[in-house]
Write a structure and sequence with these properties.
CATH class of the largest domain: Mainly Beta
Strand content: 25-35%
Distance between the termini: 149 Å
CATH topology of the largest domain: Neuraminidase
Amino acid sequence: MKKIVFLSLIIFAVVVSGYAQMGNFKYGLKLYNQLAYSKAIPYFEKSLQADSANPNAIRMLAECYRQVNDVEKTKKMYAKVVALPDVKPIEKFYYGQALMMSGDYDAAKPWLEAFREDERGKLKAEGINNLHAFFKDSAQYTVKNLQEINTAASEIGPAFFGKSILISSNRYKVDNINNSHSWTGMDFYKLYKADEENISNVMKFAGDVQTRYNVGPVNYDFNGKTLYLTRNQIEKGRVIKGNDDQVKLRIYSYKYDTENEEWTDEQSFPYNNKDYNVAHPAVSADGKWLVFASDMPGGIGGMDLWVCEMKNGQWANPVNLGSDINTKGNEVFPFISSGNLLFFSSDGKEGLGGLDVYFSSFKNGKAGEAKTISYPVNSMGDDFSFILSHTGNIAYFASNRPGGKGSDDIYLINVLKPFRASMSVSGTAKDIISGKPLAGVQVILKNSNGEKLGELTTAEDGFYEFDVDPEQKYTLTATKPEYSDDKKSFTAIIPQGHSDLVVDLSLGQNNFSLYCLVSDKKTGKPIEGVTVKMKNTNTGKEDFSFTTSETGDWRSKLENCKLNDRISYEVSIEKEGYLGKVVPFSKTLDKPGEIALHEVIDISLDPIEVGLDLAKIIDIKPIYFDLSKWNIRPDAAAELDKIVKVMEENPSMVIELGSHTDCRSSAASNMALSDKRAKASAAYIISKGIDKSRIYGKGYGETRLVNDCACEGNVKSDCDEERHQQNRRTEFIIVKM
């Protein structure tokens, strides 16, 4: 009987334990769905104590730890999640992110790379590959924990307010009842003010803007004397919940009533909505633009940054700041500096850990490409709510990095080198020859993707200027009618020793033309009716064909040519009664204007006269034969081919080919040898298609010496070899035309 009772008690205990385990999980899940993560944690922990392999409890507990920002416990629990057989891609990403935030980058990388649902995993893995880039500018900043302002609680959201700094902190209980935030388990945030000159003097800010729930961060618009703040949705003391039963964040504004010394005129931001968060207002120095964070429909990721323009006293419809700023993750805590820089934090870009601080240019409601800030501003923890003084040398931000006094602390930054999200490139468009400025030049700026970023037309001074992002690659193109284009690529880096980035543009005039004057070589007079053909050796096409006028000349514009182009032609020149020729012509167009062809190449023509030796008017080198031989060598054939060409161009021409020797050897042998050489040369020309009636060879031996180098019989010659060579010649005498 005792055994039966004892067994029954055991069964009862197991059943009760099972119900308790199920009850813990269900209640924890209820709290989780209410975003009460801190309250849900102990119930999931109890559920796992009863069943350590419960996959749902493992998942829920891991996510609760992530939401309350407990990095070590998040890492520990997500290590169990990724070991589950049905692990989800986003869970791999969250595990990699937790490893990053604990500084274990090598272990984090494969988990981040495994997440391919959007670009976040790839970006963060690439960031790990280039960790050195997050440390290269570390010497530009010194970071100090403001221990005078920080507590064991959380301090976030610094904001400039006159000579004071406003912060949000959960250091204080509003009343004696349990008033903690169920998400974090901490007290709600309230506003505090600290004197910049006496930072330890921290006091609670005006009660007019405080509520029982979260208040802050804030932004004070000095231009419009308006305080903008984030707080939970409370209207006339009543909490407003959305369709998901959650209380969202809203933006409110206040004006200060100096007479009654109170903040009044509470206004709800026109784009607040009970179903999504609208938070973290940042107003530009001129009061014209307001940037805020929201998870409203139409965004790119979780929380995006949006911008509104002040028009006619009202904030115009919000515009998403786009993919240069926003990601599939969260972009929050914007701040617009007086120098038109937009600072914000993101967990969706490459970085060192959780939220990292980024900045970009911000002009006319548009943000440039986001750039990260080096360590020690960014760390492996969450770094956010960055603000920069109007002087640019002091900044504040919040971080939960190790070594602080509380969960989040305020830090002071001494900025040793100014932040520059944008810079200018400028220069002058000039005439490449004269160096004078050019008006009417269209200058276009494009980024490395070929997207047009800016365009202008220069005035009389030729000056241009564009804003660019530092260290990015760009291309400038300058165009002007009748001028060649200039294209310059550059990286936006100011050269060492200079204060500005200057890229001058040089354009050359495109008014290139050809002028041709054909003259008689003998008289120097212009020749009318000369046919000139110019074949482009680059394309093989005949670009020009013309006949000279009575003044012997011709001119034409060179179309589609620009400065520094190289032109190349084969120039063919013919006229009856003159010896035709083909002359090569090439030139680089190094300056605009007219090119006088006859000044660059010889296009004058030799009149064809009976008795003229062709060898004297065309480029024929001496024809050589081997000793006592008359066979045609290859070098001689090349020269005889020139005679063939002339005879082909002049079909009525008849030539006597005469071969001459010097006085050495006997007169008889010289006569016989020269005759054989003359006839062999003529035979070669005939073999190339010239009619045999048009050329004949005749040997003259030493009978027609051109100097006094005779040496027959008793006559002795003291001539050197050079003078004897003058007599060893071949003549091509025109005997008929």
